[in-house]
Amino acid sequence: MVESTKDQYQFANRFLRFISHLLFGASIAQFFSCLSAYLFIGDAQAAGMLAHILIQHLSYYLLGCTFITLSLANVLIKRGQHGLRVIRIPALLLILVTTISSFLLIPRMDYLRETALLDGMPVALSPFASYFAILNGLTFALVITQIICSGLMAWRLSKPRST
After folding, report:
1. Helix axes 44-78, 10-40, angle to 10 degrees
2. Crossing angle of helices 129-158 and 10-40, rounded to 10°
3. Which residues are within 8 A (CB) of 116 and not within 5 positions of it... i.e. 6 or more apart?
4. What letters, b where the CB count within 10 A reaches 16 and e where it falls short, cover 116-152?
5. What number is the average pLDDT over the span 9-20?
6. How far is residue 61 CA from its own chain's centroid?
7. d(CA 37, CA 2)
8. Which of 42, 90, 137, 163 could cysteine-pair with 152, CB 3.0–4.6 Å?
9. What is the spatial distance between Cα 10 and Cα 79, in angstroms, rounded to a whole number?
10. pTM of the model
11. How many other C-beta atoms can be found within 10 angstroms of the C-beta atom of residue 105?
């Protein structure tokens, strides 16, 4: 019987690396699109609304790519590719951070913004301004955490591993 020395999961590893690099690029694009919304729109409230819409719509893409990456890595780990365990924690953290920012914080900020507009004032002049600023800062920190986690996944998957 002849054993093949070629990596039997070479295509899966390349696909995993490709998806993780797309994920990293998408999180950087998300950051720069939100930053450009704040830089190019004069009204801070409108810029924030646009940035939050971008974060929410790109979060579906980020969650999908992260789920594919984590699922494929878990399948390959069960088949003996134990070097892929290093991307489990960043992938789970990326799912958690994306979910918190897109499904908890941004809808809460939308509610505060609508409540302030119903009272006839922008959210920056409403009684909720400090609470809104805290939530906005948390959302920004979570977007930075998304970049770090996806970059860590891409970096760990692009490093050559010894078998």
Report:
1. 170
2. 150
3. 122, 123, 125, 126, 128
4. beeeeeebeebebeeebeebbeebbebbebbbebbbb
5. 90
6. 9
7. 59
8. 90
9. 13
10. 0.86
11. 18
Angstrom distance (rounded) from CA 17 to CA 8? 16
Per the structure block, which two tokens stand in for 42?
A: 């004069």
> Cα separation of 81 and 66, whole Å?
18
Report the residue count for the chain. 163
14 and 154 Cβ atoms separated by less than 8 Å: no
Separation CA 59–CA 125 (nearest Å): 29
Burial of 159 per CB tally in 10 Å (0-12, 13-18, 19+): exposed
Q: Which of 6-20, 38-52, 125-139: highest mean pLDDT?
A: 125-139
Which residue is listed with tokens 């609304």? 49
Residue owning tokens 């929410």: 56
